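Reopening: structure tokens for the flavin-adenine dinucleotide complex, inputs below.
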Amino acid sequence: MSNQDVDVAVIGGGPAGLAAAVSAKEHGAKHVVILDRNSWLGGILPQCIHDGFGVEETGESMTGPEYAEKYISMAQQQNIGVMNETMVLHFDKKREIIAVNKKGIHKIKAKTIVLAMGCREKTRWSAMIPGDRPSGIFTAGVAQSFINLYNIMPGKNVVILGSGDVGLIIARRLKFEGANVLGVIEILPYASGLPRNVVQCLDDYDIPLFLNHTVTSIEGRERLERIAIAQVNKNMNPISGTERQIKCDTLLLSLGLIPENELLKNADIKIDEITGGPVVDQNLETTLGGVFACGNCLQVYDTVDMLSIDAKRAGKNAAKYNKSKKLKTSIKLIAGKGVRYVVPQKIDVAGTVHITLRSEKPQEKSILWIIENDKIILRKKLRFVNPANMVKLVIEIPPEVVKSGHKLEVIIDDKR
Amino acid sequence: MTKDKEITCIVCPIGCKILVDLDGKQIKNLEGNKCKQGIDYAINEALDPRRMLTSSILVIGGNWPLVSIKSSQPVPRDKVFQVLKEIKKIKVKAPIKLGQIILTNIANTNINIIATKSIEKL
Ligand SMILES: Cc1cc2nc3c(=O)[nH]c(=O)nc-3n(C[C@H](O)[C@H](O)[C@H](O)COP(=O)(O)OP(=O)(O)OC[C@H]3O[C@@H](n4cnc5c(N)ncnc54)[C@H](O)[C@@H]3O)c2cc1C
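Re-run output (same inputs, fresh job):
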């Protein structure tokens, strides 16, 4: 077993981990190391070959691999240590990491840790689709890596379940590579991806979008042979009599992402059940001191831009970590009416706080309130909210609010 | 002869449905847009729709079997499959540098095909 002491250990070398590591180094951390199980850096980005990355952050639209290379070269310039093909198995309250690679087992003692493990895709079992278990059923991201990284076509006649951006983008990609895309099935009454992707990935190629529909059965002995789809009612249950069969050899599932946080369980870090990521404070520090979180393992971001901006804060705070600075009291930030979740979930230092949240449902005009008991901390008009678009706010929290120990409630109301 | 085209605006997540009343190459009327930004988009989309094109090309002797690519500029929408057909015909030798021009004036569009990833030689 090899032993190593580092200032900041970053678990995961995707865009979040890279941005955090670069920022930690820029803010004075001497020895920064990134640990990633892949043989490359950049996480999921090298397979996202479409463009649209970096627009908010840099004003320039890049493809996923271009965005990744930009950060990889920054990491190289900063002399950040990289351990690829290295899987982190465990870390504990003393911030001792156990990782394994071809050379053996490594113990890394870190002053601070930044979690940047990304997320994984929901599977057939999250949607409870009944039927046979033939081959030919993949998650959309896996199909994307087959096509874009390994030059393998997952199938010929394809149906996609789920109209998030990942599902829409893979539909166009399959079409480009000569597959027959029979349709995208969406249980909601609206597409969950951006209008841009509905237009440019489906409409352009006459790929049908079945709204208010779901897959009700899967049939096939060896390989998938057919699926059944049906319309759903308001409670999202299939309506009998609306079922129809589609012959296909491949079903791709784009059902959403779950933060990858198995490692947190051993370290006893508290997880927010709604975001699936750790509970954090305004510094993106988890409930275990000296351990910070960023990227899609904190919450599933819409775009890599916002993700990188937040990840830089996590890296900076990890570099500047000083446990004595903290106040004894902390206040909770909770999601009230109309709000699905809020990050951070707690605040223990007064001052500027960056908040991200998602609404419960789409609304054209609404007002966002932040309320302490009956006192209004913030009132802000929102032009268009949609659960698919994260809302980002910067607010000033006065010291007396933190000292009060009261919780802050965030509400989105349709009344003006 | 006039012809209506319904265009979904992609400028922001609202996705307004804009109805463009076209008389040949002349815009006669435009409605359904909630803001001004939609106007330019709808006009371009009605008269000359273009798309950024991204795909991949086979690599010989590299650490990856494919190199991801993009068009140097948006490609006229009706030429997308022609461009893809040209791309499928070729293979590129490693090493490849991000930004390297792989093909010029593809399908007579005056548009180049550019590598979006660096590939090492094995
Ligand atoms: C199909 C698809 C299309 C997308 N399109 C867009 C788009 O158009 N625009 C946009 O802005 N964003 C887009 N995104 C989102 C963007 O790619 C992600 O937001 C971003 O990659 C997430 O970054 P991350 O660093 O949090 O996670 P990841 O990129 O997933 O990186 C996490 C890394 O951690 C490693 N890891 C995890 N656990 C361990 C462990 N125990 N030990 C070692 N290593 C570990 C993983 O191997 C991985 O390399 C898309 C995503 C997908 C899947």
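The longest strand of chain A covers residues 104-115. The mean pLDDT of chain A is 94. Marking as resolved unless the reporter disagrees.
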